[in-house]
Amino acid sequence: MKLTDAEKAMLDGAQGKAKQKAMDLLVRYGEALGAERLVDVTNVASTFNAGSPAMKPYAEKGMDAVFSKFNLDSDEVVETPQVEVYTCQLIHGIDTQNAHVTGVAEEGVNRQKTAERFFGGRGVAMFNTCTPYQVGNVPVKGEHCAWMESSAVVYCNSVLGARTNTEGRESTGAASITGKIPYWGYHVPENRLGTHLVDVEVDVDSMMDWGLLGYYVGEIVEEDIPVLAGIRNVPSMIKLKHFGAASASSGGVEMYHIPGVTPEADTVEDAFGSRKPRERFKYGKAERKIAYDNLNSSAKDTAVDFVMLGCPHNTVEQVWTIARLLDGRKLSPNTQLWVFTPRALRDAAELAGYGDMIRKAGGHLMSDTCPAIGRIVPEGTKVVATDSAKQAHYLPAMLKTQTWFGTVEDCVNAALTGQWRGGLS
């Protein structure tokens, strides 16, 4: 790789052992990718957690050992420096305020709290969410970033027009203290052009419908870049985050274009540049049903044990919608409800009284994690209902649960009655 003098100095150890380790990792990583150089990044979204049992042996040696092993892939323990660029913490495995609900041991909670104080003191913003763009981390069009988390990456590239690949904990850890990442993939302008043209022939308006569209499109295009033509209703941020999360789950999509909506394509022609679509396919009523049936293929029993809402993490608006549906009612004694939102937005929801409304009904307002990331569901859970295509995709494989997918209203009704009565209208 071609390195600048400043990058060579870091690699030679002029700025300390940690940055030397980080640059060594990034150079090896870039060479494996075929990148010719590094690019300056100004925004990192990574994870600096330490609460899982696997991290206990390292945490007992101190957080420098955690950072060295898990964020720099180094067996040698080095001192953790201050971050070099704006860096935030993503979602992790423990809700420290609701550990009693999820069954996480106190020692894991304490390790995570120690990690938050340690890394926060080194400049990491402790957002603890898969949706950092909802709580203040909003890079601008063209800004080079180093982000983890598939649903965050696809939103960053597509809706914000910033530039990132789906990075790992090690590469983002190295980027946070060097301000560098290999210049490849979606950092390169020509790699951001569309590959597949999708003719959307039905109205896509509800959050559920955007999830279904994303799930179907992701299965077809896999890791390529779909361009959606025919969208009649301008989607909200909520709908776009669910579309992106669904397409990233079923196919690994990291970027898409909606002409006239997303920032890098005013027209279909803009989205493809001088290229022709590699493939063109339609999304109509039949394809919508295929996506719905695929997402519900694991579910057979209608008695629901657990309802999960908030993947990607809910906005305050979504929390309010759930609270309003629950207001003055009680959950089925056989069903638990967990509602997830970013920690900062949970505070806002609590101030507005939404948390009390959810708890009075028998549910829990939670943050920092989700069932798929934390591998957590209530004990004895066999049947789940969720409004998240991402959770419906992952939970049957990860936790061997039957999982129903539907609207927010379908899911809240299942929590109140203990029965799944949702369907495709």
Structural commentary:
There is one protein chain. The strands form 4 sheets. Strands 12-11-10-13-14 form a 5-stranded parallel beta sheet, with helices on both faces. Strands 4-3-2-5 form a 4-stranded parallel beta sheet, covered by helices on one side. Strands 8-7-9 form a 3-stranded parallel beta sheet. The longest helix has 17 residues. The mean pLDDT is 97. The chain is of the alpha/beta class and 425 residues long. The protein folds into 3 domains: 185 residues, Aconitase, domain 3 (2-Layer Sandwich); 102 residues, no CATH class; 122 residues, Aconitase, domain 3 (2-Layer Sandwich). α7 packs across α10 and α9 runs parallel beside α10. It contains 18 helices and 14 strands.
Outline:
41% of the residues lie in helices and 12% in strands. It is an alpha/beta fold and 425 residues long.
